[in-house]
User: Which sequence fits this backbone?
């Protein structure tokens, strides 16, 4: 009987040890990322490129052990920026020229230099709002004026300055910001000396649809948007350099960056990984091939070897 008791005790001890060993990997895994219970919220603007980039940040962070949430289509520049400052979102992709002219309210220089705008934006955001640039993605998505290709061909229009004799009879469609922001239509009027007959504002998708339906004569297009080709538009050269450079940058507060150095390191992997042609291709997949923004973002990250393939 004594030996039976001893055997049962040994079996119980063994079971406890095995159970402990089985639980250790889970314990180690849950402790490998002290922020694993935290949800990082990514904001986005109101167009396809911003959707794709927001999901790109999200998926990359999730692959590194974080929980994330994407606020797709949260709003325009000021909605996202205010949400960032208030801690309602933790990061979003902005553009250097927009931050320089709209957020920081800096005056337009005589000549736009992309590196100068980036450096001034980086310094100004920290000084004014304690906001940090987490990465510089590598491409520029600039504003541009686009018109119907057939109309441009008929009137031999390739440059913005050549609209001088036509603009007063033209209605331009814009996104919710371009018509009134200082680096938009007011800047074009200042530099080129003409203004359009009227403007109609709407979400970017509505703006593009409006020129396709002949409801407007021109639009404030985006240079990385493949709807320019899809809808048969000619993007006019800004031959007097009225519009600033718009390098894609990811913003977060300095406090968040300081308390999450691993997030900064993770998002730093996206530095200079997307050129303009690549971004146009990603937008093409959304606009023409009707792929989901999240799937486009994941495939890009897999192709670049930044995350493992999702089998």
Assistant:
């Amino acid at each position: 009987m004594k030996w039976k008791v001893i055997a049962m005790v040994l079996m119980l001890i063994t079971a406890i040890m095995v159970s402990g060993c089985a639980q250790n990997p889970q314990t180690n895994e849950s402790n490998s990322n002290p922020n694993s219970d935290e949800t990082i919220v990514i904001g986005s603007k109101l167009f396809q490129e911003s959707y794709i980039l927001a999901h790109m940040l999200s998926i990359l962070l999730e692959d590194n052990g974080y929980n994330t949430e994407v606020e797709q289509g949260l709003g325009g520049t000021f909605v996202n920026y205010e949400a960032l400052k208030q801690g309602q979102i933790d990061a979003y992709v902005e553009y250097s020229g927009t931050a320089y002219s709209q957020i920081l309210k800096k005056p337009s220089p005589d000549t736009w230099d992309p590196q100068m705008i980036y450096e001034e934006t980086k310094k100004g955001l920290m000084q004014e709002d304690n906001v940090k640039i987490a990465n510089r993605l590598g491409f520029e998505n600039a504003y541009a004026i686009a018109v119907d290709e057939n109309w441009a061909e008929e009137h031999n229009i390739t440059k913005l300055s050549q609209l001088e004799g036509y603009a007063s009879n033209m209605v331009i469609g814009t996104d919710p910001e371009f018509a009134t922001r200082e680096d938009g239509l007011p800047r074009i009027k200042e530099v080129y000396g003409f203004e359009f007959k009227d403007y109609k504002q709407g979400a970017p998708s509505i703006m593009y649809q409006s020129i396709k339906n002949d409801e407007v004569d021109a639009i404030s297009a985006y240079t990385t948007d493949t709807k320019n080709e899809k809808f048969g538009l000619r993007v006019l050269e800004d031959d007097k350099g009225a519009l600033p450079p718009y390098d894609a940058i990811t913003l977060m507060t300095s406090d968040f960056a300081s308390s999450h150095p691993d997030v900064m390191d993770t998002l730093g992997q996206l530095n200079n990984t997307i050129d303009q042609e690549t971004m146009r291709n990603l937008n093409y997949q959304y606009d023409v091939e009707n792929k989901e923004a999240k799937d486009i973002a994941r495939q890009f990250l897999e192709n670049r070897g930044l995350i493992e393939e999702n089998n």
